[in-house]
């Protein structure tokens, strides 16, 4: 890995920001716009045509039957089923703590204020299907939605020549997904946003995907809500001389193997650790089954930043705002309050990032590309909305009417003022 030293904090921050600058691809945007339009006009016919064109699969029935799901469940290794069920239990117990409750108060006589928390009616979950199957993403998307009270959870995933992954279907059954459709790409996002004869329109779309899926989500935002625009996976590690170089290298590679564009960053104040980690990364790469992917990510987007102090390390990492942040410092928990920007934080040597990917309970649908500066992990709150309500008595209105009218007229909105004053008689 490239070791960056003898640069000022400002120089390093500029380098990091340049790496995460958001760009759009006009060609992809144009292709996605055409796909969305075709789905709006032709519905299921377009979905089947695109499945044949892009996935090489001829689809008769877009919806996956309950029988097919049950049969797939039976074929999955019982050890995998047990692991999925344990993960589901942990994810559920964690997300139960996020449930928001309605509230109501009466600040003074005659005034009632409140907020009603209610679940979305229908949500669409996008589960990638490209080079690997992701049953864990099914659990991470569906379980918070179920806890929120969503009544219609619809999953879409790209069709496969050899059939959908039985493990993905088993995960959907465990998580309580209501309907599954074998359709992927931008066309799946369009179907969820606008509806077709087979696929109902939803209120929100969640889940990661490739550049076409991300572009489609951006394009339909406003017609429906979306969770985020997910980019390539990334990990940031804060480590000092107490860290184990073998562990740090393994954790960096755990994200690098996802995607050639994945980011892996170590920030340390130990030159010895920096060089040991760099050596370990090269050594471990040579035995990875997905070496070509991980090596490309490390060579293009893997950096070790060497700075002087822990304070500078944390300052830099807050600028990175990583999807996953590991703190491998002495007394790691003591630094949690200093972390301003991160999707999910892993504390100490034994909280390796894959725990969060699969089993521990916190969600792995996380903000990427520095967007942890202003957004959060997927949670129950993403599947709920809030409706405010207000009630005044005649006497309470009389107390506030003059101030409302004054403010309305200060904004040049005479009808607002008159609407209040009409009730004074």
From TrEMBL:
The keyword Membrane does not apply. Gene3D superfamilies: 1.20.5.1300, Nitrogenase molybdenum iron protein domain (3.40.50.1980). NAD(+) binds at residues 126, 187, 210. Substrate binds at residues 233, 255, 258, 324, 357, 411, 416. The gene is hisD. This is Histidinol dehydrogenase. GO terms for cellular component: cytosol. It comes from Leuconostoc carnosum (strain JB16). Its cofactor is Zn(2+).
């Amino acid at each position: 890995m490239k070791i960056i030293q003898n640069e000022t904090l400002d120089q390093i921050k500029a380098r990091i920001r340049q790496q995460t600058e958001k760009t759009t691809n006009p060609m992809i945007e144009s292709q996605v716009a055409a796909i969305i339009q075709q789905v709006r006009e032709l519905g299921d016919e377009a979905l089947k045509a695109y499945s044949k064109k892009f996935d090489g699969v001829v689809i008769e029935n877009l919806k996956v039957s309950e029988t097919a799901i049950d049969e797939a469940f039976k074929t999955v290794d019982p050890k995998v089923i047990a692991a999925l069920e344990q993960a589901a239990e942990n994810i559920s117990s964690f997300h139960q703590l996020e449930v928001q409750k309605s509230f109501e108060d009466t600040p003074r006589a005659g005034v009632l204020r409140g907020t009603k928390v209610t679940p979305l009616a229908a949500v669409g979950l996008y589960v990638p299907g490209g080079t690997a199957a992701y049953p864990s993403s099914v659990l991470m998307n569906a379980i918070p939605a179920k806890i929120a009270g969503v009544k219609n959870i619809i999953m879409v995933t790209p069709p496969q020549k050899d059939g959908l992954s039985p493990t993905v279907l088993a995960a959907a059954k465990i998580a309580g997904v209501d309907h599954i459709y074998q359709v992927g790409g931008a066309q799946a996002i369009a179907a969820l946003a606008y509806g077709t004869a087979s696929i109902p329109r939803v209120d929100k779309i969640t889940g990661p995907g490739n550049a076409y899926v991300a572009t489609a989500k951006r394009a339909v935002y406003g017609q429906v809500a979306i969770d985020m625009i997910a980019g390539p996976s990334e990990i940031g590690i804060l480590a000092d001389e107490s860290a184990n170089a073998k562990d740090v290298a393994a954790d960096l590679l755990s994200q690098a193997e996802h995607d050639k564009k994945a980011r892996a960053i170590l920030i340390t104040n130990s030159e010895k650790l920096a060089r040991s980690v760099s050596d370990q990364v090269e050594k471990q790469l040579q035995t990875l089954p997905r070496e070509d992917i991980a090596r490309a990510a490390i060579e293009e987007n893997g950096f070790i930043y060497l700075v002087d102090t822990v304070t500078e390390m944390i300052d830099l990492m807050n600028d990175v705002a990583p999807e996953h942040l590991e703190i491998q410092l002495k007394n790691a928990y003591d630094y949690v309050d200093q972390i301003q920007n991160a999707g999910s934080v892993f504390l100490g040597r034994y909280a390796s990032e894959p725990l969060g990917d699969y089993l521990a309970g916190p969600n792995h649908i996380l903000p990427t590309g520095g967007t942890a500066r202003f957004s959060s992990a997927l949670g129950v709150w993403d599947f709920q909305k809030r409706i405010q309500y207000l009630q005044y008595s005649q006497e309470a209105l009389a107390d506030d009417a003059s101030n409302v009218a004054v403010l309305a007229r200060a904004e040049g909105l005479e009808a607002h003022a008159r609407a209040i004053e009409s009730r004074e008689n």
